[in-house]
Amino acid sequence: MPVSQSEITRLLKAWSDGETDARDQLIPLVVDELRRIARYQLDRENPGHTLQPTAIVNELYLKLVDQKSVQWNNRRDFFAIAAKLIRRILVDHARKRRAAKRGSGEVKVAFDEALGLPEGRDPSLIALDDGMDCLARIDPRGSRVVELHVFAGLKFEEIAEVLAISRSTVIRDWNHARLWLRRELTRE
């Protein structure tokens, strides 16, 4: 039976108040949605990605447990933060893969290279992350819109609710941020 949004919000607020039992009750209730977000991100990568949704959710859980004095207002805020952490996990993974490919004097062959598969999109994910960091400095709300839409898979209506702005403002921010990022990423 589906869990109500109010139950999730209640558990999030209890977790914010320091009740670790609430966190332990919450995670099993939201794990399927977290896997969906992780799968959504991995579907955007090339086939053969070395991470699996469950591994991402496990790493996400460890990051969430480490969160100190976080105030969870509602389930949308929770999933927005989860999406940001998933972005960090994927970017960190991409950076590690890129560093491993450069090697440290040892001969290392990644599975995708050994099997003759096309190289993954790791460099563009890193470039996107760098672009998102630059965008956040000049247009924080536009950056959040991109993050929530691209990394969390939220619809414009949901983003409007999370950011407490109109849907038309979300679309305007999305179009501006997307064009800015495209220009930055194709500059070279």
Structure description:
With 188 residues, this protein is mainly alpha-helical. The chain is built from 9 helices and no strands. Helix 1 crosses helix 2, helix 2 runs antiparallel to helix 3 and helix 6 crosses helix 9. The longest helix has 28 residues. The protein is globular.
Distance between the termini: 51 Å
Count the strands? 0
**Residues in helix, %:** over 70%
**What series of H and E elements makes up the topology?**
HHHHHHHHH
Oligomer: single chain
- The residue ranges in which pLDDT falls below 50 over 5 or more consecutive positions are 104-123
Gross morphology: globular
Mean pLDDT across residues = 79
Task: Specify the biggest β-sheet.
Answer: none
Structural class of the secondary structure composition?
mainly alpha
- What is the CA-atom radius of gyration, in angstroms? 18 Å
Strand content: under 5%
Count the helices. How many?
A: 9
Describe this protein with a few key phrases.
188 residues; mainly alpha; 9 helices; globular
How are the SSEs ordered, and which strands pair?
Layout: H1 5-16, H2 20-43, H3 53-65, H4 75-102, H5 111-114, H6 122-138, H7 140-151, H8 156-163, H9 167-185
Helix pairs in contact: 1-2, 2-3, 2-4, 3-4, 4-6, 6-7, 6-9, 7-9, 8-9
Summarize the structure.
The chain is mainly α.
